[in-house]
Every structure is written in structure tokens, then in C-alpha cells.
Design brief:
Ribosomal Protein L13p, Chain: A, 3-stranded parallel β-sheet, globular, alpha/beta, single chain
């Protein structure tokens, strides 16, 4: 892991809007960067919580448990799937880009003390509409944080 972190960009997702962060990350991955996202559960979704949860629960009913489509409930997996949706992942360049993405809940021990970046254009400080964290959303749709 130490070799990967030397040339990787570490992004702290705390307080970043999910969609904007994902689109920026997708573009950087296609340009050849290796990106590690930490604090995935602290990313922000804009909009009313109740309507977003209802939307997600309706979507969870689609598919087959073994055949797919697979619906992730963990915050790190939600971010990965959001970024994947913005990549041409069925093409070789998209697959290679997606392999360069790592997402973690919290900050792993081997990444503590390293320089972390944030994406100013994706910050949630300028949001005036209702918003909530990805951890709150994930708990509403069935994620248990291993407590």
C-alpha cells in the first residue's frame, strides 16, 4: 500500500457533494491519476432526505439477488458505483481508470498523517437547499456500520 500512496492523490470526502465530487474524480481517473478517497461516509447528498431514501428504496426492489443489478448500501461502495456510472467502464480505458480508484470509510492507519486534498468546486458550504451525509442515507437504506 505504501508504494501506491506515493503517487496517488488522497481526497478527503468530508463535506463534498457526492455527484460533483464523483464527476471530478472520474475525469481525473480518465487522465491517468490514481485516486484514494477517505471519509466516504461524510460525503453530502443534496436534496430532501425523505425523497432520496424513497427513491433508493424503490430502486432496491429492482433486480435479482444473485444476477443483479447489485445495490450497495455501504457508503464506500455507493461512491464507487457513482464514479463508475461516470466512466465508460465497459471499454478498456474505463476499466483501467476504475481500477485506479480506492474508497475507504474513515481514514485507514496507513494513510494517517499523509497530505489530503479537498475539491473546492465540490464543497457543500455554498448549498442552501436541504442536505444530509452519505452515512445517514446508507443507514436509512439498510447499512449497518459494524457496531
Amino acid at each position: 500500500m505504501r508504494m501506491v500512496t506515493e503517487q496517488a492523490t488522497i481526497i478527503n470526502a468530508e463535506g463534498l457533494i457526492l455527484g460533483r465530487m464523483a464527476s471530478i474524480i472520474a475525469k481525473r481517473l480518465l487522465n491517468g491519476e490514481t485516486i484514494i478517497v477517505v471519509n466516504a461516509e461524510k460525503a453530502v447528498i443534496s436534496g430532501k432526505k425523505q425523497s432520496k431514501v424513497r427513491e433508493a428504496k424503490d430502486f432496491l426492489e429492482v433486480g435479482h439477488p444473485r444476477k443483479g443489478p447489485f445495490h450497495y448500501r455501504r457508503p464506500d461502495r455507493i461512491i464507487r458505483k457513482t464514479v463508475r456510472g461516470m466512466l465508460p467502464y465497459k471499454q478498456p480505458k474505463g476499466k483501467q481508470a476504475f481500477k485506479r480508484l480506492k474508497v475507504f470509510i474513515g481514514i485507514p492507519d496507513e494513510l494517517r498523517g499523509l497530505e489530503m486534498n479537498t475539491l473546492e468546486e465540490a464543497t457543500s458550504k455554498k448549498l442552501t437547499c436541504p442536505h444530509f451525509t452519505l452515512a445517514e442515507f446508507a443507514k436509512e437504506i439498510g447499512w449497518t456500520s459494524g457496531e
